[in-house]
Amino acid sequence: MHIISPGFDVIGLALSMYLEISVTTKPTDTTTTSSSNPLNCTITYSGVGSDSIDLNPANNLITRTALYVLRCHSQRTFPPSTHVHINNPIPLGRGLGSSGAAVVGGVMLGNICGNLSLPKSRLLDFALMVERHPDNVAAALYGGFVGTYLNELNPEDMARKEVPLAEVLPQPAGGEDTGLMPPVPPNDIGHFRRFDWSGELKAVAIIPDFEVSTAKAREVLPQSYSRKDMIFNLQRLALLTTVLSDSPPDPDLIYSAMQDKIHQPYRAGLIPGLTEILQSVTPKSHAGLCGICLSGAGPTILALATANFEKIAETIIARFKQEGIACDWRILEPAEDGTTVTEVPDS
Ligand SMILES: Nc1ncnc2c1ncn2[C@@H]1O[C@H](COP(=O)(O)OP(=O)(O)O)[C@@H](O)[C@H]1O
Ligand SMILES: N[C@@H](CCOP(=O)(O)O)C(=O)O
């Protein structure tokens, strides 16, 4: 997925990179016993970041989120002999929403393993308890280009705006079950609407080979903003939600509606070359370019364009190279379907 400035924490775009989770409850490993595997779950993983993803189901973000959903429904473990295979092509810590996708995948996994039949609207509540960025999770769950908001929180919930997983799913070291009931999400925490997306616009993602953790990229943001900067963003955001559906797209209008003053300038210190890239790659310098922004919390750059995708990517890659940073790049399209479930009958 990802986010389009100036819609920080508000608008999200699901893009065509798909986290796949396969689950079977058939015995796949005869050496797995309930005593060595108290959560009844084994994980295998393929894709990016396989050296860093924790395959202990008590720690892995996907299975831990699934356990949160299960425990809120009085199911302490996965069904016997659950095997979860994760195939993840979404680079980690690059602002492409790997954690949002993992959390949404986790709530769906809990829904299926527990036979809970929760609707997506309720799964959104659970996902927002773990990752409180509605732009990310609503786009991953529902697909497409979405606008979102969270309910106003009471003072107690406000104090825990970034709800750590440890609080949502209490768990001592070692993963043994405390028997504690985690906090069940209130109903309808988040709200969203889908906007139309111009058929001509594609997203060129330029992905630097270093990570910026979302938590770190939020720590550098100020606690409050000037009225001038807030009005600057709100004025552009109001137009942006509509101009991205125009056919044909208007490059100058999109480019100016994608300017931001509330997150990108502050994150520039974490991403060498960011300010210059955002200022120098324009519809005038690159025909076909319509807009450019940080993807999520970065460091990925997202260029929205109708043509010249390779040329645009080459320019940005060359600028990062001057900073000693190598990049990968992809042409992505909106993913309209959101999270889907396919049942494969026993063979
Ligand atoms: N498929 C996955 N399985 C397990 N954990 C994941 C997965 N994808 C992401 N994560 C966790 O999320 C972290 C990245 O989250 P974050 O810093 O928010 O960056 P991003 O911009 O990629 O969402 C990873 O380091 C990992 O701990
Ligand atoms: N709106 C959030 C989005 C974070 O997304 P991620 O993919 O970087 O985790 C923000 O900009 O902090």
Can you walk through the features of this model?
The protein has 347 residues and is of the alpha+beta class. The protein is 32% helix and 17% strand. The chain has 12 helices and 11 strands. It has helices spanning 61-72, 98-113, 120-130, 134-142, 155-158, 165-168, 214-219, 227-243, 251-257, 264-267, 274-280, 309-322, and strands at 2-3, 11-13, 20-24, 41-47, 82-88, 145-150, 190-195, 202-208, 289-294, 301-305, 327-332. The strands form 3 sheets. A 4-stranded antiparallel β-sheet has the order 1-2-6-7. Strands 9-10-8-11 form a 4-stranded antiparallel β-sheet. Strand 1 and strand 2 (11-13) form a beta hairpin. The longest helix has 17 residues, at 227-243. The chain is globular and about 60 Å long. The model has no long low-confidence stretch (mean pLDDT 90). Bound molecules: adenosine-5'-diphosphate (ADP) and the ligand N[C@@H](CCOP(=O)(O)O)C(=O)O. Residues 19, 53, 60-62, 86, 88, 92-100, 102, 213-214, 296-297 line the site of adenosine-5'-diphosphate. Belongs to the GHMP kinase family. Homoserine kinase subfamily. Its EC number is 2.7.1.39. It is an enzyme of class 2 (transferase). Pfam families: GHMP_kinases_N (PF00288).
Descriptive terms for the model:
transferase, 2 domains, binds ligand LJ64HWYM, four-stranded antiparallel β-sheet, Alpha-Beta Plaits, Ribosomal Protein S5, domain 2, homoserine kinase activity, binds adenosine-5'-diphosphate, 12 helices, 347 residues
